[in-house]
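Before anything else, study the sequence and fold tokens given here and see whether the fold suits the sequence. Record follows:
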Amino acid sequence: MQRLNEQYPETPIPLDHTDPFTLLIAVLLSAQCTDKKVNEVTPALFAAGPTPAAMAALEDEEILGMIRQLGLAKTKAKNVRRLSQILITVYGGEVPRSFEELESLPGVGHKTASVVMSQAFGVPAFPVDTHIHRLAQRWGLSDGSNVTRTEQDLKRLFPEDQWNKLHLQIIFYGREFCTARGCDGRVCPLCKELYPNRRRPVITRKA
């Protein structure tokens, strides 16, 4: 935590958004896709559908046309529109503020719900993406058996009031220094500091 606080004192959210709704949509779109690519398509999408009502008024094909370059675009387009409709009919046009309600929405899994709860509403959560899952294994914080276990281990190890910031710091570090191919547990500064005598690469399990 000390090293990451030194490296990343500020933790801006990588996905461009203006409110809980646009954050929810951006995180949904980021599945199996880079944040950079998502940020390239969301300006047009959010201009056309800045609210649940406006997004629900669009046709699936219109949404698809704006996000076509993303992975799983057809399914995501359907989920974005259906999710927007549910927000209007069930939640009065507001993004719900509970894990259970968020995870009941089309295309919203536990990681997406965790990001929204932590970054939109300030509720302590520890969303685990591929970077966090990889680094938790390299740093000996979890065994990498699955993302659920990784989340549980990280929550147990770190103070709850640090979760929301720390998960972003780990992501930033994983992208900049401890990449999937750029470090094998013996290359990046933090891996070398934590394990100066490590001789063999760490074989990590995918998220």
